[in-house]
């Protein structure tokens, strides 16, 4: 019986520690505190605001209406004057996600003592770096074609790139067989070939947001 009591007490102690640790985080995907501060120190400061602890909490909730986990420290007085510093750290290209990203780190300091009260970190897509040029789009489309098709293309580097959105049903050949691109925002890349007179041009369609190849027009 004593062993059972000891085990229960130990478990409660562990849960208590876990609970105290959770209060220092703000969102569900926060890097380790050590890694977070390293990124903050190496990153670029984008803003610094002086407010109160309550003002920071209210502002944070307004900026993150869909936040999944929010458990701020309760040992801090609402009227405590704080300094909120936001820093951006560029993570570079994320192979798994398939795009560039950056970490937005928020550090809150006691304005008087300089003590770090809490930190939060969130990863965001770096839209500025993820934007593709016409040359990039053209190359993605070209690389998606078979070697046989590539051999018939006259000059892939001069292929026409344009935005395209089909108002009616428009089926294209895709990896899964067929795909309807009706109402989809796409880029259409048109390659002139030596077989245009017989089969028509090779038209490749890319998703406008992800730049993934959706499919190719069926040829005659």
UniProtKB/TrEMBL annotation:
Q: Which domain of life is it from?
A: Bacteria
Recorded protein name is Uncharacterized protein
